[in-house]
Amino acid sequence: MATALQILTRRTVRANPGLPYNLLRMPKLIINADDFGLTQGVNRAIIALYHAGALTSTSLMATASAIEDAIDLARQNPGLGVGCHLNFVEGSPAAHPESIPTLLGADGKTFRPSMADFAQAVLRGSVVPEEIALETQAQIQRLQRAGIDVTHVDTHKHTHVFPLIARTIVHIAQRCGVHAIRNPYEPRWSQKIAHASLSRKFFLRAFELSRAGFFKLPEIVAREVLTTEGTLGIRATGTMSPEVLLHTLEALPADGLYELCCHPGYNDGALGAMRTRLRQSREAELRMLLEIIPERLRSSGGPELIHYGNLGVAGLQRASGQFEPHDGYEKVL
In the 8-state DSSP scheme, what is residue 206? Predict the structure, then answer.
C-alpha cells in the first residue's frame, strides 16, 4: 500500500486527508522528452535515457515521420510513460484536411508553418474549436489504435497556453481516457534560474496571461484530468546547461510534483532535414541528463521519478493491473 501511495499527487492526498501525507515528503519529478517519433536519432536518444534511469516519460508525435519506429520502441519498453505530443503547427494533420480547414496553411493540406501564424489565427478567432477537437481526437486515437496506453497530452510549442486550445484538448483527452495534461507554465522560482533572450522572455510573459484560466478548466477542477505544479526547463529550451539543470534540481520543493521538459536527440542527417531550431542542443541535453540525473538520484535528496501514468486513480489502477486503456475506436465526438 505504501508503494501505491507514493505515486499519488499532492492534490490527491489533500482530497483524502486520511492518507499518510508523510509518505510523500520527497520531490516528485516527471522527466519528459518531447518529440518522440521526430527522427530515429531522437527516438534512440530517448530510449537510451530511459534505460539509464535518466528519463521516465516521453511525448509521441502522432504525425511525425519516425512514428512507427517510436511505436515499436514504446512497445519494447512498457515501463516508459508515453503521452501524445499534440501538433497543430507545421507538418501534416492526422484528420482529413477537408474536415479541418481553419487549422491549415495556404496549401490547404498542411498546418500553418509557424507558431506566430497559428497564434495570429487563434487570436483573430479564425480557428474553429470543433476542428481542434477533431484533430486532437485523431492524433490521440492514432496512438491508441497502435496499442499505446497514452498517459498524458501536451502540445508542440506549448499551444495549449491559448484558452481555446486548452479547453478543447482537455475535454477531448478526458473523453479519450487520458487523465493527465502538461501544465504549460513554468514556476516563477525556476524561471529565475535560467537565462533567456529578450524574445524568449517576451514569449514566456505572454504565456502568463492565461495561467489562472488553465486551472479553472472544469476537468482540472474536478480532477478528472490531472496536472503538475509546473513544468521546468521551458525558459531554458535550447540553452539548458549543466549548471542550470543542477540548480533546478537542488531547488525542487520538498513535497512538489513537477515536470522537467527536455528535447534530447542525435544531431544526425535526419534531424538536419527537419524544420527545428533544436539541433546541437539535443545532443548537449542527452549528455547532461546521462551525467547528472542518475548521480542525483543516488543522493539522499534526489527526487522520486514517476510518469504521468502513475498519477491519481488511473495510476493506482495501472499499479494493480486493473487499468484498461482505450483502444482508439471509442466514439468521442
Answer: H
pLDDT digits (tens, 9 = 90+) for 228-272: 999 999 999 999 999 999 999 999 998 899 999 999 999 998 898
Q: What span, in angstroms and rounded, lies between the C-alpha atoms of 288 and 264?
A: 10
If phi > 0 it is left, if psi is from -120 to 50 it is alpha, else beta; for residue 43 that is alpha
Residue 304 phi, psi dihedral angles, 5° rounding: -90, 125
> Contact, 146 vs 71, CB < 8 A?
yes
* Rounded Cα gap, residues 332 and 176, in angstroms: 7
What is the pLDDT, as a whole number, of residue 2?
36
Three-state SS sequence of 64-80: CCCHHHHHHHHHHCCCC
Distance CA 198, CA 234 (A): 14
DSSP bridge pairs for 164: none
Size (the chain), residues = 333
pLDDT of residue 10: 42
The string of pLDDT tens digits covering residues 142-194 is 999 999 999 999 999 999 999 999 999 999 999 999 999 999 999 999 988 98
Cβ atoms within 10 Å, residue 310: 25
Secondary structure class of 317 (helix, strand, coil): helix
Contacts of 197 (CB under 8 A, 6+ apart): none
Place of cell 515501463: 79
How far, in Å, CA of 37 to CA of 59, rounded?
Answer: 9
How many angstroms from the chain centroid is the CA of residue 311? Answer: 14
Residue spans of the chain under pLDDT 70: 1-25
- Sole residue written with cell 516521453: 58
Alpha-carbon separation of residue 302 from 67, 143, 276, 287 (angstroms): 33, 33, 33, 19
d(CA 190, CA 107): 40
Under a CB-based contact definition with an 8 Å cutoff, are residues 35 and 85 in contact? yes
Cα separation, 128 vs 134, in Å, equals 10
**Angle between helices 67-76 and 40-51 in degrees, nearest 10:** 20
